[in-house]
Design goal:
This protein has one helix spanning about 1-65; strands at about 85-90, 100-105, 120-125, 135-140, 140, 145-155, 160-165, 170-175, 180-190, 195, 210-215, 215-225, 230-235, 250-260. By secondary structure, the chain is α+β, with helices and mostly antiparallel strands. It has 2 domains: about 1-100 and about 215-260, no CATH class; about 105-215, Jelly Rolls, CATH 2.60.120. It has a 4-stranded antiparallel beta sheet, covered by helices on one side.
Length: about 260
């Protein structure tokens, strides 16, 4: 009887060790798979961060007025998380481009309009204005009693609309013609300098802005690294060469697609 019991105990021990071994093997397999998934997710996160940073570096260039489609432009090289994405910049070739929206833009409050000398003018080139769309301008300055003129010229330099007066703000509202390229001109008609109030992206009577539907210049920026690609459809407003010296441009991200 004692021998039989010992045999039963031994059998149970063997069975227990077998079941435990199977459970341990399953646990180790699960742990290995889990660690590989975590590692893969971490690698993809690092790759996305690097690719996104590379696109943001191009956006930073566009904000300064750089023409990223001009010959000789080289996208900034960005290395993040030990990864250096390959970046390309091209003109978009899409059948249905993103719809242009009305936006408030800085016409030069951070540049030539910051302080405009007496008798001086400041011009901004507008590329890709939607035909027959509304264009409105508000120029708020000090001293508020100054004289001003705001004009819109077509691509041939012919006057489309003009308004002048005394007292801040100077303003102009006009409907664009069939053309798409215009020049917005500001003139200080007084003898003393006029300092513009800052730009507001929300408009308002106490700020300086231009409100329009503008295409500007469009870009397709692609950053690829470690099997991950970020494609950004960007709109630079008002576009390269708009002013001299350049003003700070708005860059609108129309789409941001991640492919793995």
């Amino acid at each position: 009887m004692g021998t039989r019991r010992k045999g039963q105990v031994l059998l149970l021990m063997v069975l227990g060790m077998g079941v435990g071994g199977l459970a341990l093997g399953a646990l180790l397999t699960f742990t290995d798979v889990h660690l590989r998934l975590v590692r893969k997710a971490q690698d993809q996160t690092f790759a996305y961060q690097a690719a996104a940073a590379a696109v943001e570096a191009v956006i930073a260039d566009l904000r300064t007025g750089t023409d990223a489609l001009a010959g000789g432009y080289t996208p900034p090289q960005v290395t993040l998380n030990g990864l250096t994405p390959t970046v390309t910049v091209a003109a978009p070739s899409v059948t249905t481009p993103p719809v242009m929206a009305y936006r408030y833009l800085d016409p030069g409050a951070s540049a030539g309009l910051l302080s405009l000398a007496g008798g001086a003018t400041w011009q901004v080139t507008l590329n890709g204005v939607e035909p027959r769309s509304l264009l409105a301008v508000s120029w708020t300055f000090t001293p508020s009693s100054g004289s001003w003129r705001v004009r819109l010229l077509d691509s041939q330099g012919q006057q489309v609309a003009s308004r002048s007066g005394s007292g801040s703000p100077g303003w102009l509202t006009v409907e664009a013609t069939e053309g798409t390229t215009y020049t917005l001109e500001f003139r200080n008609q007084g003898s003393g300098a006029q300092a513009s109030q800052s730009f507001s992206s929300n408009g308002g009577r106490d700020s300086t802005w231009a409100y329009m539907r503008l295409k500007g210049q469009e870009y397709l920026v692609t950053a690829a690294v470690s099997g991950l690609t970020v494609r950004a459809y960007l709109r630079q407003l008002p576009g390269p060469g708009a002013t001299s010296p350049p003003l700070l441009q708005a860059v609108v991200v129309e789409s941001w697609v991640v492919q793995r």
